[in-house]
């Protein structure tokens, strides 16, 4: 019993340590584990940069571990609180180009992959941000996708 408690403590501490640099995270869950091209994901979040000096936008993807893609092409429209919009085209890597191994962390058949984009937030612009995400995969339906989300990563100066 005592060893179980100690094990849970270390697991909890490790989870906290892994997430400490992510200030905000929000997700969208797909029905039927597939993302259709016509399904445009919109995520909105109030972001307060009060204690953050520098931050970048990250993308999180939860997918089935046998997904065949090496990279997922995405179009992201970012609307800032002041009305400014930014279009961002990214290719989110899912597999190592040499070894073909998954880049994310897999548990069983589920894999979580995080990708840090080049988009830097203006930390003077706290307020409501809206992120519109669509895939540019060649097929109409992209299978083996469970969730997509965004996160704000705090960076050291």
Structure description:
The protein is mainly beta and 157 residues long. It has one helix at residues 2-19, and strands spanning 22-29, 34-36, 41-47, 55-64, 71-79, 85-93, 105-107, 110-120, 127-135, 141-143, 145-154. The chain has one domain: Jelly Rolls, CATH 2.60.120. The protein has one helix and eleven strands, in the order H-E-E-E-E-E-E-E-E-E-E-E. It is globular and about 40 Å long.
- Beta-strand portion reads over 45%
Fold-level CATH name:
Jelly Rolls
The amount of helix comes to 10-25%
Number of domains: 1
Principal-axes shape call:
globular
Query: What is the residue-mean pLDDT, rounded to a whole number?
Result: 86
Gyration radius from CA atoms, angstroms: 17 Å
Topology:
Layout: H1 2-19, E1 22-29, E2 34-36, E3 41-47, E4 55-64, E5 71-79, E6 85-93, E7 105-107, E8 110-120, E9 127-135, E10 141-143, E11 145-154
Antiparallel strand pairs: 1-11, 2-10, 3-9, 4-8, 4-11, 5-6, 5-9, 7-8
Brief descriptors of the model:
52% strand, Jelly Rolls, four-stranded antiparallel sheet, globular, 157 residues, mainly beta, five-stranded antiparallel sheet
Quick recap:
With 157 residues, the protein is mainly β.
């Amino acid at each position: 019993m005592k060893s179980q408690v100690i094990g849970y403590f270390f697991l909890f501490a490790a989870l906290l340590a892994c997430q400490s640099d992510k200030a905000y995270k929000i997700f969208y869950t797909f029905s039927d584990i597939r993302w259709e091209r016509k399904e445009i994901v919109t995520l909105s979040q109030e972001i307060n940069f009060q204690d953050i000096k520098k931050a970048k936008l990250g993308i999180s993807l939860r997918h089935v571990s046998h997904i065949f893609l090496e990279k997922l092409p995405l179009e992201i429209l970012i609307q800032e609180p002041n009305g400014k919009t930014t279009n961002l085209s990214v290719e989110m890597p899912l597999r190592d180009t040499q070894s073909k191994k998954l880049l994310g962390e897999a548990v069983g058949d589920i894999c979580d992959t995080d990708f840090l984009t080049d988009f830097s937030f203006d930390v003077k612009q706290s307020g409501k941000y809206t992120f519109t995400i669509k895939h540019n995969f060649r097929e109409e339906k992209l299978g083996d996708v469970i969730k997509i989300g965004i996160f704000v990563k705090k960076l050291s100066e």
